[in-house]
Amino acid sequence: MKILLFGITREITGQSRLTVPANAGITTVKALKVWLAQQYPAMQGLTSLAVAVDNEYAQDEDVLNPGHEIALIPPVSGG
Amino acid sequence: MKILLFGITREITGQSRLTVPANAGITTVKALKVWLAQQYPAMQGLTSLAVAVDNEYAQDEDVLNPGHEIALIPPVSGG
Amino acid sequence: MLIKLVEHIDLNEAYAYLHANEAGAVNLFVGTVRNHSKGKEVVRLDFEAYDAMAIRQMEHLAKQAFEKWSLVKLAIIHAVGAKDPGTPVVVIGVSSAHRDASFEACRYLIDELKKTVPIWKKEFYEDNSVWVNAHP
Amino acid sequence: MLIKLVEHIDLNEAYAYLHANEAGAVNLFVGTVRNHSKGKEVVRLDFEAYDAMAIRQMEHLAKQAFEKWSLVKLAIIHAVGAKDPGTPVVVIGVSSAHRDASFEACRYLIDELKKTVPIWKKEFYEDNSVWVNAHP
């Protein structure tokens, strides 16, 4: 499963696209967040961290499908 | 005493500057309004009619001095 | 502050004036002449101002806005003369550090301008014309 | 509606799009990069967007605004890339028959844009840089 990264999450991971190994067993947004916090403790210091699926904000219980476009959305600061 | 006229008051009187004869004995804003209503009954049909003295709105009890710039202000509709 | 009566509204002039490196927000209101009024087609408009008093009253409004809000710059520009429907006739612009002030002050200025600034609009329809607001 | 990400904000493009003979009011908000943030001098900024999602979220906001208010047209344009302080980075514009709607919708759109549209600003100071809002 590939995850698009922007802003500070791109800097924290040092990459703009992250691959979550299949054996990590990630199937929900919540599970992805837990996995990220373990892999990249700096993520826990963020004000918030959302996950987007196919350009829409996803909820913790939403199921992640590798065929969808998945992205991390750190706190936005446009405008 | 000369009175500047704009908008509909200019049309009602047919002139852009009205002379109030000295013998009319007009000394206050209120007296001017009463005199105008008699001379030009159409003025009474307006939504409102204010008087300005030296570019400021005047009150009914204010005294009119011929040395000041006096104007009638019918309902404004700018913007 | 930039306060004036003009033949033609220039939005860029207003924005160029309002722009400032310490201002994070600019709010601009542009009032245009609509092509319909109370169900009738407006074919032309004419704006007449009592120039000196209009400027004076706009200055009062500007002063009030600077007292009520923390503003960087402020512009009030009103057009006079004959206008076609669709033409911009007034632009009000306010710049401020944060957006609350610019939105609120801009709204205040256009609301008050319509109440107190001696400018008159005459609407021409196909068959007649009327001084707007003159009669109840 | 006119919704896009651009290198350079063009206020005239927004106004030209919003202009309509049936609209009596246009409200425009221009957000610019201030030269100071939390007491430090900002020497440069960089805006990064998740383009496809940013457009999608701006479309959602536009749809909400059209549902909440009676609007004629609506524009949301955001800049991306490196910007100097003082540069406009976002313009939101709304045209409507009467001014209430354009003021309220414009304010709604900029408030919501700042909450939900995936665009990120990095501020560069003399000695360091920070992703705005990233940390509490």
UniProtKB/TrEMBL annotation, chains A, B:
Keyword Iron: no
Cellular component aspect of the GO annotation: molybdopterin adenylyltransferase complex
Pfam families reported in the protein's UniProt record: ThiS
Record CDD domains: Ubl_MoaD
Biological processes annotated in GO: Mo-molybdopterin cofactor biosynthetic process
Extent of the signal sequence: none
Coiled coil location: none
Keyword terms, alphabetized: Nucleotide-binding
NCBIfam families: moaD
Protein name: Molybdopterin synthase sulfur carrier subunit
UniProtKB/TrEMBL annotation, chains C, D:
Name of the protein in its database record: Molybdopterin synthase catalytic subunit
GO BP: any one term: Mo-molybdopterin cofactor biosynthetic process
Keyword set includes Ligase: no
Pfam families noted in UniProt: MoaE
Alphabetized Gene3D superfamilies for the sequence: Molybdopterin biosynthesis MoaE subunit
Keyword Translocase: no
Biochemical pathway: Cofactor biosynthesis; molybdopterin biosynthesis
Source organism (scientific name): Mucilaginibacter galii
Gene Ontology molecular function terms on file: molybdopterin synthase activity
